[in-house]
Here is the input.
Amino acid sequence: MVERPPRFSSLDRAPVVAVLLAAVLCVAALQLGGAKVPDPDVFWIAAAGRDFPRLLAPPTTNGYSFVDGAVPWVFHERLFAPLYAAGLSALGPSFFSAWGALVGIVGIALVFGALARACERLAVAAMATLLVLFGARSALFQPRPAGAALVLFIATLALASAPWSRARAAALLAVALVWTNAHGSFPLAAIATLAIAIDERATRRKRLGLAVAIAALGVATPYGLRLPVLAVRYVLGGNPTMALVHRHILEFAPLWRAGAPLVDPLSVMALVASAVMALSALRSPRTRGRALFVLLLVGLAVRQARHGGLACVAAAMLLHGEIERLLGHATTRPRFPARLAVSIALPAIFALAIIWSHARARRDEGGWLAANLGGRDALALLDVVPNGARLYVPFDLGGLVLWRAAPRGVRVFYDSRNDCYAPENARVAFAIETGAMEPRDAVDLLRARGATHLLVADGTPIAKALGALRPLARQGAWSLVAAR
Here is the structure.
């Protein structure tokens, strides 16, 4: 009887896999390299990097708001702030388009490189990498620190699941230290290490000690216990302001309510595949801790759609053996060169450089801002806002105001940092944004709380309530209006 080769054996050939994954990454680079920037958060992160350049002396109060300037602020993304400030100062908003695409390319290359070393078959590594591409592309290919934090998650899983060595343990501690100072999702490093330790009987005690050491890093920052407390609140709520954020910010919505780009058919299929892999892996005591960890992330993704990428990455990197059972084991274990991962990233980086340079040569600063950030029109009006103004702007414009006008003493009513605002002001801000508050009442309330100017777009309820007032300046569909 002739032995049949394993399924998808053609994907065990390095050139085939390299061309396939490089082509997919090139398409992503061409789509994203010239894309406009829609994310308001990157601008206030850059503003903080400019205004608080010392990493060991980060901001401790809101400071940028005229109503809640003294409210405590735990800046959990502070490691990215100097980079964002430098990039935005040198390249304008185009920096964020290039950065988001580059983060995604590096993340996928890192996933594939780790899997190519861990899997018996290159086909398994390729399919697990595609699972990450389908399930985590919106989370990974983005300029916000959450994208780079996902790369740190990938590095953590690769180091924690590899055979034990002191060098890998030291590297894992270093990655965890960076992550702790870079993004609020850092508790996942300790949880992932703990989950893997459950499955590794021979080195369990060492790995458990490493998990404890990583967890201790969470308080080894200028913020102490306040940083891990904030991280928990972002997931579970725990105070009135975070309850409002969970209710109104789309990425905190459950899976069935969140839409694109967080949720689409491909990402849902990838999340379902991750859950199936985890349920299958529960049967074996050698993968039970990993499976429980993946199921935890799947449950979080169902509750809050923003965690879907984490679940797919964890499933691909920790449970790739389930794909191997489906496709069949390799008859021999070839060695895959490290340059294979580099070979899929370099063409995409080249494509990114071409499309980004082409777009940058044809756009001014405002041309890189998406419609939700007001584009050229809102940007032009920010330059005529008076020094020291107490300014109301829509939710998405807050970060841009802080970058452009905070050095002139301009302060905002509310912006997308969210957690550093009192619940009563967060409630008002979301009520105005969603139209739940009568527009004239909103204007009166803003005046009562000290607003001196409003920057609004035509057609919005609050703009209609200001219709009788003559704008100080107007650009396109946007108007700058004196509140008094």
The chain has 21 helices and five strands.
